[in-house]
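Problem 12. The chain below contains 296 residues. Write out its predicted structure in token notation.
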Amino acid sequence: MKKNITTVIAIAIIAITLFFILRPQQKAPEFFTETTGVTTFYYAPLNTYINVFYHIPEGVNKRTAPILFSIHGTLRNADDYRDFFIEEANALGFMVFAPEFRNEGLFAGAPGYNLGRVHDEFGQLRPREEWTFSVIEPLFDFIRKDLRSRHTTYDMFGHSAGSQFIHRFLFFVPEARVNRAIAANAGWYTLPDLTVDFPFGLKNTPVTAETLKKSFAQRLYVALGTEDNDPEDPFLRRCSETDKQGNHRFDRGLFFWNNALINSTEIPFNWEKVIIEGVAHSGGTMATETVFLLYN
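Solution.
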């Protein structure tokens, strides 16, 4: 009897050993191999490589940690937009990815970046896959595949031109797998108004009343620093249409919010206005002051 038990135990040990030897091994990341680094993402529809600056806290479970896209401003300083969140990412256990849309070639100027490359130089609508906005969803899949992430949604933070990118992104890609997004201190806005021509409104774009319902259902925080109120800021766009929105960024943010309330007659409306007292036009400060909206 003892001999039979010993045989069974030996067989079980061999079986368990073979299971661990022969089972499919967890594939190690190929692109996101450091704690803080940069890698490249190839976006095939535009035949271009995009730098992605990232931070993955030491010891974090890459398969379960939340994914945050930090979207840079007009300076295209994606490394800074990664670094803004390093301390908070380490403390709260999320991962940061900051794509860099360099101010040249395909992504040059506002038309190539914060207006999303939706239209060409002749005002004609480009194919959807050629939009700058269309990079984000495949980039998310690229990150998920490399890190074997279980997450099916991602979060977003953008400041200044990055804030412009995010609110327009939600208009043009309303089905995006966004969990929560923060649009902070944009210089001016595309209003959710189908009667105003793009880029100041959404007339003559693929956006419809039906797709706007999906955009309003997204969880967007319109974050505004009370001291971002300098009408002489050299980076602040001035023209008759933007000046209708207000004399400085704080007023323009309030104008955008009120316009959204007027045009969002459908439920659900999941946007929220967040006023950050005493903060001027600082991406880093707005990042640290609003991260609690995403993680706590």
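Discussion. The beta strands are 36-43, 48-55, 67-71, 95-99, 154-159, 178-184, 220-225, 272-276. Students who got a different answer should revisit the alignment rule from Section 12.3.
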